[in-house]
Amino acid sequence: MAVTRRQFMKVSAAGLAASSVGALGFVGASESLAANVRPYRLEKATETRNTCPYCAVGCGVLVYSSADGTKDGKARAFHIEGDSDNPINRGTLCARGAASLGFANSVNRLQYPMHRKPGSDKFERVSWDFAMERIAKLAKEDRDKNFIAKNRDGVTVNRWVSTGFLAGSACSNEAGYLTYKAIRSTGILALENQARI
Amino acid sequence: MTNSWNDIKNADVVLIMGGNAAEAHPCGFKWVVEAKANNGAKLIVVDPRFTRSAAVSDLYAPIRPGTDIAFLSGVMRYLLGTGKIHQKYVNAYTNASYIVKEGFKFEDGLFTGYDEARKNYVDRTTWEYEFDEQGMAKVDETLQNPRCAINLLKAHVERYTPEMVERICGTPKDKFLKVCELIASTANGERSMTSLYALGWTQHTTGAQNIRSMAMIQLLLGNMGIPGGGVNALRGHSNVQGITDFGLLTTSTPGYLVLPSEREATYADYMKSRAFKPIRPGQTSFWQNYGKFFVSQQKSLFGKAATKENDWAYDYLPKFDTAYDVLKIVDMMAGGQMNGLFCQGLNVMMAAPNKAKVQAGLSKLKWLVIMDPLETETGRFWENHGEFNNVDPKSIQTEVFQLPTTAYAEDEGTFTNSSRVIQWHWKSVAGPGESRGDIEIIADLHSRLRALYAKEGGAFPDPILNTTWDYAKPAHPEPVELLKEINGYALEDLPDPADPTKVLLKAGQLLPGFAVMRDDGKTSGGCWIYTGVYTEAGNMSMRRDASDPSGLGVHPNWGYAWPANRRVLYNRASADPDGKAWSERKKYITWNGSRWVGADVPDYAPTVAPDKSVGPFIMNPEGTARLFSRTAMPDGPFPEHYEPMDAYIANPLHPKVNTNPVARVFAADAKSFGTPDKFPIVATSYRLAEHFHYWTKNVHDNVVVQPEMFVEMGERLAKAKGIKNGDWVEVSSQRGMIKAKASVSKRFRPIMVDGKPCDVIGLPIHYGFVGMARKSYPMNTLTPAVGDASTNTPEYKAFLVDVKKTTPPASSPAVA
Fold this sequence. Notes:
With 197 residues, chain A is α+β, with helices and mostly antiparallel strands. Chain A has helices at residues 5-17, 20-23, 27-36, 95-98, 101-104, 128-146, 173-184; strands spanning 46-51, 60-66, 76-82, 114-116, 124-125, 148-150, 156-166, 188-192. Chain A folds into 3 domains: 5-36; 46-104, N-terminal domain of TfIIb (Single Sheet); 147-196, no CATH class. Among the domains of chain B are: 238-417 and 420-477 and 552-565, 3-Layer(aba) Sandwich (Rossmann fold); 667-805, Barwin-like endoglucanases, CATH 2.40.40. The two termini of chain B are 39 Å apart. In chain B, 60% of the residues are buried. Strand 7 of chain A pairs parallel with strand 12 of chain B.
């Protein structure tokens, strides 16, 4: 059974009452102390095993999250530490990894789809549906107009080179594979990632 | 990495050159400290700057940026000249004894076959072995033939004397020789050296040859396939290894298969050059299985639409005419040849060289889609940020979409680290606001395109309409579903090759490994090197048993390492030709009389006896590793020192061929290179311990400790220019100008190059005009848009600049 810090203090207080210290009149003080001890921050948290998002050492991290006290009732990550089970980093984190909670919770995280019209000096909030429908239309328009089915020698080449896709190197393998499928099937050749740069 | 992070602890010598692990990969560097503390290892650091890696080294040697090949060729000359090589290993496991074709030559900086007009080696027929009538490479095991690869190598590196190394690299002769001696101490089976490098080697016009030079040194020393050995790329992004494995590169497909070119009109044409017949008797030549991997991949991508009759949907793949790498993409954008661009977490405005060119290119796009968890310069390239991004939004007609993605802790799936270890991570919280996962966004884009093509038709809709998308929820493919698809399935009952009356795998079962893949359409598998990651026994990437039975840092039940859960590549070479360990200290994989056994999964057929003389480098049709690389590299079978494109000196070896003769230079960039008369200072880019790329300028704690851009310079240069610590400095190159504060340090000291002192400065890459840090001029304003001849990795690590004291930026660089 997991014993919380508060329970531990209560048990200790009970132990004290039965001891000679109890006879000295400290019993009430201990109970009051037990009542006011803050529970460990991580007690109510959900612990999730993750991998540091930065370099490719692949350090294991433990992310602690809770919906306790958040305004919208949604869980937030509030503490991150190295995973001591992970044989690669053995619980250590570098200056960047140790501060990585600040990335997850950065005020510069993008929140909503935004759209900048040609010539405009600002972004305007739009719906996902608007953004994705417009992107799909623009992509199809360009593909249909510039798709090269055969080269000058009449060889079937089925390529589309007027649109490019720069893939994320912090996306998961699963996202990367799906991206490969979806993008290559359009005939895009200008498909790259951070590996060269 | 050929070896692993944990394996570094087994090293006796650690060479950090072309990287700075202590600051860039601190938790990986821990294993260097472990090697020093518990294995008596000595650390050598070769770097233009006295980095924190150098600060804890046993031996530090300075070097001028962009001269690594001269240094490493000098090391090879030392090893070959003093005979300090692991001769038995070299004889048995490399192509040292192979006879190179008559006619192959190197003269005045050029190998045979160069075409001056096309700036390319158009005729590479002499970059090859002599073959006998059976098609087998000819060898002279006595090494007496002057055309033996090792003798040609000896002659090639003879010019790189310690004096020449000092003249080109600026490394004092005595320091250089001490480095050589320490490296040479591992030329036996008793001791090993590991090589750790990063972008300090790749970001040069000779990048791939830098790494090749080290691979050759490790072969001469017998350090490949050995615990504590190897050539180890310390990669930069959390899943850049995985994303590269999955072929998100212009001419790749998943698992390092190659996208067909337009010269390969049919599947038969494509496979013609991929037969990979052994060129020495009895060799494995593992790539002979290429067709099985390719067909299985096509079955994963296109399912029932990929049939034998349609050559496994060969026409569904685009055929390339040229490589569309990042430099090419930017050049096309700037030339108005590109209309749309997606940036999935890649901040190209900061990451590509020559910011002015990128800015011009993005401004010519019709539309740009940003998918990112953070604000980026690319997303706001059209916004005026004073002198840091001085543009007129009205004149920029690009339509921009900025889509918020989830990030760290907000999704589940696998990352592959630098040691090829695939680790599952679990979702902790939902992303902020309306952010969505990359999988969800890609699924949405694909579904909409598919629906539009189904409804309206259009240009060749077939591959889009036939891409497999049989996920339980098509709008939300689950990572587990995708990882299974990557692993691959038996599509029909597969007979047991040993006993055809039995069924090896039933239809629908997950493949246990890539060895069962077939080229008849009965198996699928999106990325063959990952097959085995999700089998009928479960999701191997989730395994969390940290035990290390051998004590060598193998951890075989932690996650899953590709390929086949192998932690050290080429590990057959850890045993001698008879199958015995070279030494007890380095015992790893040995022959027990009936099988190969040891700490790791053998990189070899498990029951092939040593007397069959099958070489350990099973991916090569020779079975051996190459000192002479045949036609594998576009700039020559041996590495050669060429000056960076911004050349600091006339190449003392061959002034007429000063820079890499096959580096690709676009017409638009022909006049973009600097010369030392105008730009007499050598600059290099680097990364800070406190920042990660362009991300952490959005993170409060990181910004508090490193709030703004600076230029680091040595005391001599600062004094000569009247610059004090904290002064504003203008740094200019042929491409542009930035302002930054001076950080005057002892870490940069002038080095004597070609008899004259050379000043080197350093520029951190992290700062731009978006984020919480102080607004800065992006440093890629200064860098040249030219890349490595092999990989087109931009030359960020060696370019020419001038510096002078200046006034602060007019627009106050307040916190953004």
